[in-house]
């Protein structure tokens, strides 16, 4: 009877104690979250309940399974399994806590600062910091798991002795990967490009959607994703339309006849912009910028708060101005003027009549 009760008491007691402590910790964090509405930290920490319960239960079982006298012939294997679970769940908990702290810090910063550029910069930095912490914790956890095996402990000395040679070999073999890693850190803390920036790379216009330690994803206007190594942005020039501010100035060009009513077009442009919600009201204008023997070039200038809105304003102005010209001033649209050429001095007719075709009929 004792052989049955002892394992049940040990295992059941560990589970009950885990649930009780987990409930008390969750209750304390819930009360703290209700008292401190200015920070989401305590609410984010409540998401760590599952890894916390696993860590607590694994620790209790690891410390008390020897008293259960269950599967004595396999006690060493059970102890090693519990150790592996404890190490893995601890790493899981540390990553969750770090993510909660990072997200809370970013949320508080975004609530205080209203500058979108600074907020995007901090978002990029904290995202990469979180990825670095996750990678470090994962490497340490895997190393700790491996060292629980006696064979790996015996090989530890030789591994440390050859660490210098292995480091050189790994550095040569992973030169590209390490280059991307340092390029990712350079992008994060050098403020070259941030999540949410509008960029033009390799002739493609899009928005930076994700930045990792090795690659960067750009979402184009037609919902495609371009994945590029981060080293591309540290070794080649690219356009960043959001750096220094997201406001943009756009232009719309028209090729019209010389008789086009420029003054009335200017008035119509003002009316169109007043009804366009995407126009930010900073500036506008219309002027003749060039002429050719048959047409003149008219440029409409508009402004907007970002690249998406300036595109909307440009297409709206182009569409409505062309429609207005077609309906009210069709003579202003480009046209090809044809006329008879002047007769040459020698009296030769430059446009002779076509030869008369022979008539055919029934005889």
Structural commentary:
The chain has helices at 2-35, 41-45, 49-68, 75-112, 116-147, 150-161, 163-173, 175-190, 231-235, 262-274, 307-328, and strands at residues 198-201, 204-211, 215-220, 225-229, 239-240, 248-256, 279-291, 296-304. By secondary structure, the protein is of the alpha+beta class. The strands form two sheets. Strands 4-3-2-1-5 form a five-stranded antiparallel β-sheet. It has a three-stranded antiparallel β-sheet with strand order 6-8-7, with helices on one face.
SSE topology:
Layout: H1 2-35, H2 41-45, H3 49-68, H4 75-112, H5 116-147, H6 150-161, H7 163-173, H8 175-190, E1 198-201, E2 204-211, E3 215-220, E4 225-229, H9 231-235, E5 239-240, E6 248-256, H10 262-274, E7 279-291, E8 296-304, H11 307-328
């Amino acid at each position: 009877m004792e052989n049955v009760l002892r394992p049940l008491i040990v295992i059941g007691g560990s589970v009950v104690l885990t649930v009780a402590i987990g409930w008390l910790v969750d209750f304390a964090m819930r009360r703290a979250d209700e008292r401190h509405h200015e920070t989401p930290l305590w609410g984010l920490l409540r998401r760590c309940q599952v890894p916390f319960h696993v860590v607590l239960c694994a620790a209790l079982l690891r410390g008390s399974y020897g008293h259960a006298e269950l599967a004595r012939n396999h006690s060493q294997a059970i102890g090693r399994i519990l150790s592996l679970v404890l190490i893995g769940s601890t790493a899981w908990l540390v990553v969750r806590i770090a993510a909660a702290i990072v997200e809370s810090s970013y949320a508080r910063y975004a609530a205080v600062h209203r500058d979108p550029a600074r907020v995007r910069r901090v978002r990029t930095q904290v995202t990469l910091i979180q990825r670095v912490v996750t990678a470090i914790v994962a490497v340490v956890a895997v190393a700790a798991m491996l060292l629980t095996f006696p064979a790996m402990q015996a090989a530890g000395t030789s591994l440390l002795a050859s660490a210098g040679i292995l480091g050189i070999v790994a550095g040569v073999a992973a030169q590209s990967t390490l280059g991307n890693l340092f390029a990712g850190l350079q992008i994060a803390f050098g403020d070259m490009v941030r999540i949410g920036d509008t960029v033009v790379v390799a002739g493609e216009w899009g928005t930076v959607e994700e930045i990792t330690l090795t690659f960067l994803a750009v979402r184009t206007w037609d919902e495609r994703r371009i994945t590029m190594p981060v080293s591309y942005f540290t070794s080649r020039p690219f356009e960043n339309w959001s750096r220094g501010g997201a406001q943009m100035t756009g232009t719309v060009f028209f090729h019209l006849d010389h008789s086009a009513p420029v003054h009335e077009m200017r008035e119509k442009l003002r009316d169109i912009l007043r009804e366009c919600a995407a126009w930010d009201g900073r500036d506008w204008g219309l002027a003749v910028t060039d002429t050719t023997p048959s047409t003149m070039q008219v440029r409409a200038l508009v402004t907007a708060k970002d690249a998406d809105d300036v595109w909307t304003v440009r297409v709206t102005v182009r569409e409505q101005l062309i429609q207005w010209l077609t309906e009210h001033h069709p003579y202003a649209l480009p046209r090809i003027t044809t006329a008879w050429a002047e007769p040459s001095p020698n009296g030769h007719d430059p446009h002779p009549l076509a030869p008369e075709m022979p008539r055919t009929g029934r005889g």
